[in-house]
Design a protein that fits this description.
- By secondary structure, this protein is an all-alpha fold.
- It folds into two domains: 7-79, Homeodomain-like (Arc Repressor Mutant, subunit A, Orthogonal Bundle); 82-221, Tetracycline Repressor, domain 2, CATH 1.10.357.10.
- It has ten helices and no strands.
- The chain has helices spanning 7-14, 22-38, 45-52, 56-62, 66-79, 82-95, 101-129, 134-161, 170-191, 201-213.
- It is elongated, with a radius of gyration of 20 Å.
- The termini are far apart.
- Residues 218-224 have low confidence and may be disordered.
- It holds the Pfam family TetR_N.
- Residues 44-63 bind DNA.
- This is TetR family transcriptional regulator.
- Keywords: DNA-binding, Membrane, Transmembrane, Transmembrane helix.
Length: 224
């Protein structure tokens, strides 16, 4: 069974001073889990109240409508620095010295698998809401995407100098790696968690990426 972290777990782990009450945190944690499992429309506030162990009226003391509760989730996630947590151990890998591209790739995949599997319900709600919240999208771009891409490009350049990966534009290589890894993790842990996962699948994913951008790739002579 996959172990996941709730909003409450993340708040406790981040040691942040939250302006939310314990009941609010429990309500939002319950809403995230149920919206992720059943979808927003199919989830009743009575179910959220039961899971949060509060009276249904307590929800409406904090949030006038179910929609207001939904919109409170991205705001809460922004406050708890989920995106900084996303990068915390990831940056350790990026900042390490790596002699071998395959080993680097394996560390990245295993690290992101752990993060996505632990925070799948929260990530699912974020993905659902990002199109409707420009401020959330901006925060993701500025605190996650841009910094990690910048660090990733410098690493890719080093492996290109070592002739371990093809001489393609580094931004293209980063995009291909991200698409492959997060496409796989999205399907298995967010979109279709019931899908059977072979223990060798991640190894196949590594080889799939290496065959595409490794030095033996047929893409190495592709016009730039």
């Amino acid at each position: 069974m996959k172990s996941t972290k709730s909003l409450k777990d993340i708040i406790n782990a981040s040691n942040m001073d939250s302006d939310m009450t314990e009941k609010q945190i429990n309500i939002l944690s319950a809403a995230i889990e149920l919206f992720s499992e059943k979808g927003y429309e199919a989830t009743a506030t009575s179910e959220i109240a039961k899971k949060a162990q509060v009276a249904e009226g307590t929800i409406f003391r904090y949030y006038k409508t179910k929609k207001e509760l939904l919109f409170a989730i991205p705001k809460a996630l922004s406050k708890v620095s989920l995106f900084e947590i996303f990068l915390e151990d990831f940056n350790e890998i990026l900042n390490d010295e790596h002699d071998n591209f395959e080993d680097f790739l394996r560390k990245i995949i295993m690290n992101r698998k752990k993060f996505v599997s632990e925070t799948a319900p929260i990530l699912k709600v974020i993905i659902q809401e990002v199109p409707f919240h420009p401020e959330l999208r901006s925060k993701i771009l500025n605190t996650v995407i841009f910094p990690s891409t910048e660090n990733g490009i410098s690493i890719i350049e080093k492996f290109k100098l070592k002739n371990q990966i093809v001489d393609m534009p580094s931004t293209t290589i980063i995009n291909l790696i991200i698409t492959s890894i997060f496409g796989y993790l999205f399907v298995h842990y967010i979109a279709l968690p019931e899908l059977p996962e072979n223990e060798q699948d991640l190894e196949y994913l590594i080889q799939y990426i290496l065959n595409g951008i490794g030095q033996n790739s047929t893409l190495k002579n592709t016009p730039r």
